[in-house]
Design brief:
A hairpin with a 3-residue loop joins β12 (190-198) and β13 (202-212). The longest helix is centred in the middle third of the chain and has 29 residues, at 140-168. This protein has two domains: 2-23 and 170-306, Sandwich (Immunoglobulin-like); 36-134, Immunoglobulin-like, CATH 2.60.40. It contains two helices and 22 strands. By secondary structure, it is mainly beta. Strands 12, 13, 14, 16, 17 and 22 form a six-stranded mixed β-sheet that branches. 13% of the residues lie in helices and 40% in strands.
Length: 307
């Protein structure tokens, strides 16, 4: 469905996540787990998500013989044991306070418990997709897997530090911050159009701005739920004719919107993002929330760029 709006841009599909379809995560979430030496140790957590498959991959000499859920009957697809892997898939998201036990019996007769929990704010709401499980943290495979985890974490931290450093001196981020605080008069932007919508979880009020060499979108988001916090997972800016991502400046009034409260997210797009192969092209601005669902898609026309 395409909803035509006045002006040079359009809102695509339904605005809110109630009718949205989960998008695939760009990067697999793979972690390393080492079995505790003490049997009475607290069970290690596995983060699961509705309709997302999570695989526990054990060492060859620890192949699982069987696995069973405690208290999760009807909430998960049948647990599968395939070779040295245990396969999990919740039928729907777990509530923030929910947790279920997974008991895995290994080839050495040990029964190892795991605690299945929703991701929450961890990794922007991403579920574990593969867990490499080892019995000895000093073994070669365990050390190699842990090293990969560490390298990935360091790479993420370096990228985040670089991003924050660039944002400190970015004009676009400064403008996004002003829009987020409502100081539109201090920016070069003028209102181009407005849209709004609501479902059972979220109310969305959006404004598109036209500016000299730049365009902007501001979302006012109200969390209508009584228990679940709302947060933004990511924002993507892609070309209408291709899937290449463009840079976009984003600022938000709060990292988490508590139940019953509201927050503001401002985004500024530089005019260079509209250029593709020497010609101007329209862009899609996509907003994803904490659980990976696409909250909204807005088409931005290059005619939003003022002279």
């Amino acid at each position: 469905m395409r909803i035509a709006l006045p002006g040079t841009w359009a809102l695509l599909g339904t605005l809110l996540a109630g009718a949205a379809v989960a998008e695939e995560h760009e990067h697999a979430v793979i972690r390393t787990l080492v079995l505790p030496e003490q049997p009475e140790a607290a069970p290690q957590r596995v983060y699961v998500k509705g309709q997302v498959v999570t695989v526990l991959r054990f060492e060859q000499d620890l192949a699982p013989l069987r696995a069973r859920l405690v208290g999760g009957e009807g909430r998960f697809e049948p647990v599968g044991v395939v070779g040295r892997k245990v396969v999990l898939e919740p039928r729907r998201d777990l509530a923030p306070e929910e947790g279920f036990s997974l008991l895995v019996t290994l080839s050495d007769a040990r029964e190892v418990p795991f605690l299945l929990r929703p991701p929450g704010r961890r990794e922007h709401g991403s579920a574990d997709q593969q867990l490499n499980v080892y019995k000895d943290r000093d073994g070669y495979e365990a050390m190699a897997s842990a090293l990969l985890d560490s390298e990935k974490e360091n790479k993420t931290l370096r990228a985040e530090n670089e991003r924050l450093h660039k944002e400190e001196s970015s004009e676009a981020h400064a403008l996004a911050a002003l829009l987020t605080t409502g100081a539109v008069a201090q920016t070069p932007f003028g209102v181009a159009d407005h849209f709004s919508g609501a479902d059972g979880d979220t109310a969305l009020d959006g404004t598109v701005y036209r500016g000299t060499g730049k365009a902007a979108v501001v979302f006012k988001v109200k969390n209508l739920t009584t228990r679940r916090p709302w947060s933004m997972s990511s924002v993507r800016l892609v070309g209408k004719a291709d899937a290449r991502e463009r840079a976009i400046a984003v600022r938000s009034s709060a990292s988490v919107i508590a139940p019953g409260t509201s927050g503001v997210i401002g985004r500024v797009v530089d005019g260079s993002a509209f250029v593709d192969g020497g010609t101007l092209t329209s862009l899609y601005l996509e907003l994803y929330r904490h659980d990976g669902l696409r909250q909204a898609v807005v088409e931005l026309s290059p005619s939003l760029l003022g002279k």
